[in-house]
Structures are given as structure tokens and as C-alpha cells.
Amino acid sequence: MFNAHKHLIDISEYTDSEIMTILETAQQFSQVNQRRIKKVPTLKGKTIVNMFNEPSTRTRSSFELAEKRLSADTLNFGGSSTSTVKGESLIDTVETLNSYKIDMVVVRDKNAGAPYIVSQHTPAAVVDAGDGKHQHPTQALLDLYTIWQHKGRIEGLNVGIVGDIAHSRVCGSLIPALKIMGAHVTVVAPGTLLPARPDVLGVDRVSFSLDDVLPDLDVVYMLRIQNERLEGAPFPNLDEYHRLFGLTKQREPLMRPDAIVCHPGPINRGAELDSYMADHPERSAILDQVYAGICVRMAVLYLLLGGADNGLSA
Ligand code: CP
Questions:
Q1: Superfamily assignment of 2-135+291-305 in CATH?
Q2: Are the C-beta atoms of 195 and 167 separated by less than 8 Å?
Q3: Ligand 1: nearest atom to the Cα of 108
Q4: Is the CB of 93 under 6 A from ligand 1?
Q5: Domain ranges of the chain
Q6: CB neighbours of 45 closer than 8 A, spacing ≥ 6?
Q7: pTM (2 decimals)?
């Protein structure tokens, strides 16, 4: 099935059954991650370059651990420690790395489209680990996995995505992924944090009031305020944003009894979430999302690189 895909750059290129295969494979790798010895020989002999040209905690650490647990050789590379600071271009950098006969490049970059450019200049497979305001497909997959594990299904769920829609690469992948899997998607934001034409998002509903939509939602997905990508002042101050669009202890009574809270991290506590909701023992799925990251990334690496033996029977 995965012969059709060399890269994971645009989640919209994947069908519902292909996404389900990734989630089911991730569930198998979750068993590996709970063993005493959390390592399988699946990608022995494969070389994966993690090229992170922008900061990351969760994505970078989980890709690296996923690669190690699949027995791949890994090279961590990027940012201010490379010759790009001397003026070397992205294309020359990739062509240099190609000389090592690499099998995959995992790319995080502040520029939208960087993973696609890399894919045009390497024979290796390319995985987008977040590019500018564009896409973050493995984040969307780990979000789907978390929702599926909590709710037992994705199709038909009401998912609300709240906050900085305009600057979010998480939205760029999560909205199409949820729609492919048959969820109903609502976005909630002040007009200044929505695209100029919200209809291009392809969602079922756009709302300017969290209080109006909260009672309908099975999943409340809070987005980080992207301080590093904001231009101008999209809201008067963080206190007002928190009061109008933050998920807080005061708002919890509006939620369905079984509604869960997701957030891609890192959290701005006191802005989009208060600590009561971020750490809520029954509702918060945020650390489950982090765990899903390693399982889903193991599945993606395994499926794209065609591991001959996933080691699950060991
Ligand atoms: N969710 C996410 O991409 O987090 P990091 O930037 O820490 O990788």
C-alpha cells in the first residue's frame, strides 16, 4: 500500500485507509515501547538525517528515539551549528548529505515548502517535521492516534480547534486529516487569528465564541499562540485573549462530561490554557499526545522505509 508514497510532506495525499494503517501500525509499536527492551531490528542498516533548522522539543526527541528504537543509524544536523551560517544554501546542504547515501531526511524548517525543496534534491525519502505556517503531518497523525485511543473512533466526532488558526502549521495538517477521517471540524478564534478567507480551511463551522461551541465538542484542541509568527497586535493583550478564548476552570462546566483536551505543545500557560485544564487528570490528553508521537513516528519510518521485519513478534 505504501508503495504509492515515498514521502510524508502533504497529509492530503493520504487516504483514510492509509492513515488508518499508520494508526494501527503505531498501536503495534506501542507494544514495543512498553517492553523492557524497547528496540527492534526493523531499520538496521538504514541512515536517517534529522535536519532541524528551527527549535523543537517533542518532534525532534521523538523522531530520534523512534529511529533508535527501530535500529536505524541517525545523524542530527541543522541550525546554527552547520555551514548554512556561512551562506551554504539548503540545496547545497542536501546535495552534500546525499553523498553519504542516506535513506531519509526528516526536515523542520521555518520556511514553508522547505521539505518539498529537499525532496526535489535527494533520492532519499523526506518527512516534514513542521515547515513554517504550512504543515506538520506527523503532529496530525499523532493527534488522530490520541483521539482514536481515547474515543475508539474518529469518524463522526465533533472536534473544535481553538486559537491561532492563521499562523498554525498544526492546522495545516490536522484539519485535512480530520476531514479525511470523517470528523466534524469547528474552528474558534478571533477574526484576527483566522485567515482572510476562512472558507479555504475546509471546516464545517467557524465560530468567534468558545462558549457557544464548547457544549457540542467531543475534542477541544487548543492551539498555541504563535508569538514568533504574529505580525502586529491581533488581540489587545494576553489577559483579554485568555478571558475570551482560553480554556479555563470556569469554562469546564460547559464541556461534555467525556470531552477531552488536546494541545500540540509547547503550552503557553495562562494564555490558551490554564493549568487546571492543562493538567486535568481525566480530560487532558496532552501527555498522551507526546507518547503517541513516538509510536506514530515509528510507524511512519517503518512504513515509508519498508522495514522487512517489524520485530513485533520478537
Ligand atoms: N508540537 C511540536 O511540534 O512541538 P515541538 O516544537 O517541541 O517539536
A1: Aspartate/ornithine carbamoyltransferase (3.40.50.1370)
A2: no
A3: 8
A4: no
A5: 2-135+291-305, 137-288
A6: 73
A7: 0.94
